[in-house]
């Protein structure tokens, strides 16, 4: 599943491709991708004639700003966008097609069909689900060490599931949570409220650095989420712990351990990331 750096990369790629394009029509081939409005014909008619001013990101969601409307799109497991010409053969998994007045098409393809789209009037989208309950943006200046410490204070929850909970901090998924905890030298099962001020500060720094470096590298997807455009991310080559089950810790040489925390496969170094009571 794409996390913040991958969605940020998709956002940047899409801005280069569709900014300023005007919709002449929309074809919805799999209605359940569209959650709002429930009427697909209304969805189509609302969008027709609108111009994409910009594509923004909130957490793992894309926000297409369409003069007066906002289309909120979540890629979930396998969703991806691609630019095509009408004569290009249609993939059977291309579920939503945005036709532009210049003759090009933006196709949304999703093999697993878990992706979602919600259409709002401008200003409404941040006040309603799915965006209204989202937590802090980790690459926003408002995400300070102090705010992060306050957020952790008194929480008995294990730190890994807390970081995955989008109501606290957005955009972090299984890859970047394992990387950040490893960099900070914190065991994934440590109770959030039990972290010292110094540990919380180290973790804050690790989250910001890991995500920033991953954005810089275009994310860590083996595949690109926007087909044929730009390059797929290279951060997977820089991962220190995630996915390295049979490897050793680059810092101390201990075998990397894999366990389950909060139902998620978790990689950590049992020596560098000790569980302190
Ligand atoms: Zn180690």
TrEMBL record:
Residue ranges constituting the Formamidopyrimidine-DNA glycosylase catalytic domain according to the UniProt record: 2-115
Record InterPro entries: DNA_glyclase_Znf_dom_DNA_BS (IPR015887), FPG_cat (IPR012319), FPG_Glyclase (IPR020629), FPG_N (IPR035937), H2TH_FPG (IPR015886), Ribosomal_uS13-like_H2TH (IPR010979), Znf_DNA_glyclase/AP_lyase (IPR000214), Znf_FPG/IleRS (IPR010663)
Enzyme Commission numbers on file: 3.2.2.23, 4.2.99.18
Co-factor remark: Binds 1 zinc ion per subunit.
Active site: 2 (schiff-base intermediate with dna), 3 (proton donor), 60 (proton donor), 264 (proton donor)
Cofactor(s), names only, from the UniProt record: Zn(2+)
Membrane keyword on record: no
Quaternary context: Monomer.
Protein name as annotated: Formamidopyrimidine-DNA glycosylase
Taxonomic placement: Bacteria, Bacillati, Bacillota, Bacilli, Bacillales
Gene of this entry: mutM
């Amino acid at each position: 599943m794409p996390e913040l750096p991958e969605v940020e990369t998709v956002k940047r790629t899409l801005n280069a491709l569709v900014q300023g394009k005007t919709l002449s029509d929309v074809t919805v081939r799999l209605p359940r991708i569209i959650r709002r409005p429930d009427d697909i014909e209304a969805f189509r008619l609302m969008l027709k004639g609108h111009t994409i001013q910009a594509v923004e990101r909130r957490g793992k969601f894309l926000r297409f700003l369409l003069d007066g409307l906002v289309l909120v799109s979540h890629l979930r497991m396998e969703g991806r966008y691609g630019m095509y010409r009408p004569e290009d053969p249609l993939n059977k998994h291309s579920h939503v097609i945005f036709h532009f007045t210049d003759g090009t098409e933006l196709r949304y393809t999703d093999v697993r069909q878990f992706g979602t789209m919600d259409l709002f009037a401008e200003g409404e989208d941040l006040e309603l689900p799915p965006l209204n309950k989202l937590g802090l943006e980790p690459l926003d200046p408002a995400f300070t060490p102090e705010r992060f410490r306050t957020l952790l204070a008194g929480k008995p929850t294990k730190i890994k599931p807390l970081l995955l909970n989008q109501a606290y901090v957005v955009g972090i998924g299984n890859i970047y949570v394992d990387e950040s905890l490893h960099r900070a030298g914190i065991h994934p099962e440590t109770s959030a409220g039990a972290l010292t001020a110094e540990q919380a500060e180290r973790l804050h720094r690790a989250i910001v650095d890991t995500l920033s470096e991953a954005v810089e590298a275009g994310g860590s997807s083996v595949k690109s989420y926007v087909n044929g455009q730009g390059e797929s991310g290279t951060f997977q080559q820089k991962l220190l712990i995630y996915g390295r089950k049979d490897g050793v810790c680059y810092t101390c040489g201990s075998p990397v351990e894999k366990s389950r925390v909060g139902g998620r496969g978790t990689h950590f170094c049992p020596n560098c990331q000790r569980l302190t009571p």
